[in-house]
């Protein structure tokens, strides 16, 4: 009985080209259509492993870990100074799913910087913030603002220790007026002390004590 042989079906050329174009492993710089460029490791045509991305529009640079096309792991993000064109570090730390997550340090314009925990791109957990005026907040953060227990130390060494909510003093707390040698302990609501007690605290060592001491009840 005669055997009929059919010609083997060949896959379209675009399939072969696409297979050859799949990026995997360490590659030279790859340019995107918009001018962005990436140099580093790939997996299944996605940025994966160690690599450096440069965004053409802003000039920003990210160098660090990638996972399936997103920043994930440890890395640093920098932007060029608009005047000097020198690169200034913005964030160094951990990332997850293309957002700051875990421990990291961020530098803000004006010399302010934050070091501590992040979640979903926001300050969340424990952290320390150095403000431009010399104040320092150290404590808990929630949704990018002080929330929970924390301490704010002012440039004149006066400080508040207590509860915070939405970035404001809220709940039980103590305010140490070390320049006057006094201590206020009470309840706060949206940065305003509502009720409490004011007593002398280290008045003899204070640089600018009040004229008369607070009488004892």
From TrEMBL:
Protein localization: Cytoplasmic vesicle, Secretory vesicle, Acrosome
UniProt entry tagged with the keyword Amino-acid biosynthesis: no
Gene3D superfamilies associated with the record: Histone H3 K4-specific methyltransferase SET7/9 N-terminal domain (2.20.110.10)
Cited Pfam families: MORN
GO cellular component: acrosomal vesicle
Alphabetical UniProt keywords: Cytoplasmic vesicle, Repeat
Signal peptide bounds: none
Positions of transmembrane segments: none
SUPFAM superfamilies reported for this sequence: Histone H3 K4-specific methyltransferase SET7/9 N-terminal domain
Function: Assembles a suppression complex (suppresome) by tethering SIRT1 and MDM2 to regulate composite modifications of p53/TP53. Confers both deacetylation-mediated functional inactivation, by SIRT1, and ubiquitination-dependent degradation, by MDM2, of p53/TP53, promoting a proliferative and cell survival behaviors. May play a role in the regulation of spermatogenesis.
Protein name (record): MORN repeat-containing protein 3
